[in-house]
Amino acid sequence: MAVTAVVGLQWGDEGKGKLVDALAARADYVVRYASGSNAGHTVIVNGRRFVFHIVPSGILHQRTTCLICRGVAFDPESFFSELKSLQEAKIACERRLWVSRRAHLVLPIHKLEDEALDRLLGIGTTKRGVGPCYADRAYRLGIRVIDLYSPATIRQRIKTLLEVKSPLLRKAQIEPPSFDRLFSWCEDVSQRLQSFVADTAAILQKALNSGAEILLEGAQGVMLDIDHGTYPYVTSCHPATDGISSGCGVSLLPQRVIGVLKCYTTRVGAGPFPTEEEGDIGEILRGRGGEFGATTSRPRRCGWLDLPALKYACRIAAPTQLFVTKLDVLAGLQKIKVCNAYRIGQDMLTEFPADISVLEKVEPLFKEFCGWGDVKGVGAFSRLPFQALEFLAFIEEELGVEVGGVSVGSERMELLERRS
Ligand code: IMP
Predict the structure, then answer these.
(1) Predicted confidence (pLDDT) per residue in 130-141, tens digit
(2) In a designed cystine with 220, which of 57, 195, 224, 396 is the match (CB 3.0 to 4.6 A)?
(3) H helices then E strands: how many in the chain?
(4) Pocket of ligand 1, candidates 224, 236, 276: which has the most ligand atoms within 8 Å of its Cβ, to mutate?
(5) What pLDDT is recorded for position 342?
(6) Do residues 75 and 202 share a domain?
């Protein structure tokens, strides 16, 4: 039996989807356990681009079973639209893609509420309704997938949801949906979803017992975790290792945790970002890296690699291996900078600050590396330019975790595994 988790160590968009797609070739099960359609996992195969928000990125491999587990804020609209794209690409999903009965539903009213709340809070959410869905779970107002099959329960919950949410929506000049609209939406979803609904925890337990290869697909990254991230500029769940057992509904300790990081840093939405480059370098990284949100198309904020933030993330996610993406984006730059410490005034910070007003004030200190040439065609990790190997060795040394592979382009073939 082998359980591998792929988690993000930065503010999301590290390139997890691509790695999950590659590892899924050897997996029996690929599992989403947290977050919702706010995630945007891009996979490019033979020039064809797939963006998965809710369906696990392993779906392109016909022999894998894909599970959307209890901890996912399940957005049926996103699910059906991804299903349609997969059908168009002649990828069959029936009897190998399952949605947990216990997952909470993202309803149309959650997306409106996300919009209304974000006007007040200014977090810059994806407006996919994920925060309000998780909030309703905690309020015990939520509708789960299983509840779709109990009209009396849906009726009562919709009534309460409208009572609670309508004043907030009206205050934001957003017209709440009618009871009938929400009810017929639920009826429609219940019919279209029925053949995908299952007890995913039981499926997973059976898979574990039989020694299957299981791949857990994290979303976003540690720095967006609701507790460990830069609160309140975070998402609303535990999208990395913390969310695994509770999100799967099965006690799981992965043998392998692959922490994915981009060789620079990006962030979407508001919140502190110590190594952000707002000038030319930021533009270059955004342009070359195609740094525009896969979910919202917003330009991503870009900056240099931030090791103090990564050290903190490693303490939380405990990766057994690192995977460094997008080395090709830095190719051709004369100098590459890596932040290896934070300072405030004359004081060096020894811990990543919990107080974001402190994080906003830190001065990042940089070590400079010589740039490297083209890496796209190198074909093997060991053939990377020595400057890139030096850069990777520094990351390993600082984070105390081995780099197990890199990506040098967006295609499947452009992942280079390190062989010892
Ligand atoms: P929410 O998850 O839509 O509530 O958004 C909360 C914060 O997380 C915002 O700053 C979003 O931009 C950010 N966020 C959510 N999902 C992703 C993602 O997949 N990649 C990068 N940022 C994300």
Answers:
(1) 999 999 999 999
(2) 224
(3) 13, 20
(4) 224
(5) 97
(6) yes
pLDDT in tens, 251-304: 999 999 999 999 999 999 999 999 999 999 999 999 999 999 888 889 999 999
Chosen domain end from 193, 209, 224: 193
List, in sequence order, every residue forming a beta bridge with 294; answer none if it has no partner: none
pLDDT at 145: 98
Q: What is the pLDDT of residue 47?
A: 84
pTM above 0.90, yes or no: yes
Q: How far does the centroid of ligand 1 lie from the alpha carbon of residue 42, in Å?
A: 15
Ligand 1 residue neighbourhood (C-beta within 6 Å): 11-13, 38-40, 123-126, 128, 130-131, 220, 224, 233, 235-236, 268-269
Task: Examine the residue annotation and report whether 41 is marked as an active-site residue of this protein.
Answer: yes
Is pLDDT above 80 for 420? no
Secondary structure E strands in 272-318: 301-303, 305-306
Cβ-Cβ contacts under 8 Å for 380 (sequence gap 6 or more): 416
Q: Which residues of 51-83 are buried (b: 16+ CB within 10 A; e: fewer)?
A: bbbbbbbbbbbeebbbbbbbbbbbbbbbbeebb
Measuring CA to CA, which residue among 70, 77, 146, 148 is closest to residue 109?
77
Distance CA 26, CA 214 (A): 9
What total of structural domains would you count in the chain? Answer: 3
CA of 50 to the centre of ligand 1 (A): 19
pLDDT the model gives residue 117: 96
Tokens representing 332 are 């051709």
Shared domain for 172 and 78, answered yes or no, is: no
CA–CA dist 119, 214 (Å, integer): 40
Q: What share of the chain is helix, strand, coil (3-state, %, to 5)?
A: 40, 25, 40
215 and 98, same domain (yes or no) = yes
Strand pairing report for 256-262 and 321-325? parallel
Residue 56 is predicted with a pLDDT of 94
pLDDT at position 331 over 90: yes
Paired tokens of 367? 């070590």
For residue 147, give its domain range.
106-193
Q: Are 163 and 109 in contact (CB under 8 A)?
A: no
